[in-house]
Amino acid sequence: MSSAVALFRRDVLLAWREGGTTGTALGFYLVVVVLIPLGLGPDLNLLSRIAPGVLWVALLLASLLSADRIFHNDYEDGSLDVLAMGPLPLEVVAGAKSLAHWVTTGVPLALMAPVLGLLLNLPIEAYPLLMLSMLAGTPAVSFVAAIGAALTLGLRRSGVLLALLVLPLYVPVLIFGVATVSAASVGPASPWPPFLILCALSLASLVLAPIASAAALRTAMR
Amino acid sequence: MWNLANPTRFLSIADRIIPWLAGLTFLLLGIGLYLAFFVAPPDYQQGETVKIMFVHVPCAWLAMFGYTLIAIASIGSLVWRHPLADVAAKTAAPIGATFTFVALVTGSLWGKPMWGTYWVWDARLTSMLVLFLLYLGLIALWQSIEEPGRAGRAAAILAIVGFINVPIIHFSVNWWNTLHQPASIFRAGGPTIDPSLLTPLFVMAAGFTLLFVLLHLLAMRAEILRRRVHALRQMHVERAAAA
Predict the structure, then answer these.
(1) A205 by DSSP, 3-state: which?
(2) Which residue of A71, A147, A164 to mutate against B (max B Cβ within 10 Å)?
(3) Complex ipTM, two decimals?
(4) What is the dihedral of CA B15, B21, B22, B23, to 10 degrees?
(5) pLDDT of residue B179
(6) Per-domain boundaries in chain A
(7) Among A27, A131, B2, B61, which residue has the least CB neighbours within 10 Å?
């Protein structure tokens, strides 16, 4: 357990001190959200209606940006082989690294979403649930992205392939995330049922995705 | 199952089955098309366009059948290391993707006269589209990993992950929106389609299923032979290098 925590701390520290990971994701998130009104016109009513969907889609794209880095550096310099030979099960390694990706990408993006919501004229009442739904949904995003990262480890053009493999799997997260925020901003339905399903999706991927990631890592390192 | 594990034996059995299977497939498809075009009555509401159903519905079934087949073959290749499961999973993906595509296109052509538009973001159409994307992901993964052993295992993992996700995606898309008519053949209380339309539909479904199996066998045979040629070539190069 303590070695898993140490691995998690190491990954978060590396991402933090290396810089770039979180900053690039946040910058990308901002750029995508800025482009949307430029493409659709400055109609504030329209923007406030589509804001939940735009914020969620842009968040998915932004968090995929750094996903192919989850295992990449450790694979290149050989530390992944050391981790695989060590006492820690590869599933726990994959889980700790996915969790580190969530903390360095998912959480900052979720915290930045309300600022971008202002740009899109999202009603203020929806902000708590916007952040809450993103904090609850992004673990699923990071853990599923880790499967794609492990599958495409060491391939050329792995980033594009990763997006093609993983984005279709995000359909449920997107639907229930947007449903939660929309219900909070326009009503009339209660936002809690989709929010709870979102939590369930995250919890399920927390348990199941590391198994698949570890299996994929084994095929990549053989 | 294990008798077929030997590729040579599989090839000899496939060689014997394929001509018969091809004959039966074309016979059934011929009967099905005859029934569909000349025997089945036009629908009182939809008119002749209802006949798109005879291609659309079997293709949609086979799209899901294909993915299920890939998932089962993937388990076979990951768990039991069955040497042909790999080949089966790889060759089923393009065929399944094609059937999914045909189902989408015929559905869109059927939607134009019925719903007044080629595409609606209805739950079933959307799940089908996502299924098509999952197929594309599998094919792309096969294409980008050169070493067949790793490609097989990676694609198998992806196929199983996708298979677990398909019901979740279907459920969530259902929650999201629904306009397509609900299931009308396999449901509690018997089918809601008239037998005069149901018989040709089943004949066509059987014909298309055989077509899938036939194409799959042909593709598997081609894949095994391709791998052999590859291995022979490699041996040849190595021998030339040694000499």
Answers:
(1) helix
(2) A164
(3) 0.86
(4) 120
(5) 44
(6) 2-221
(7) B2
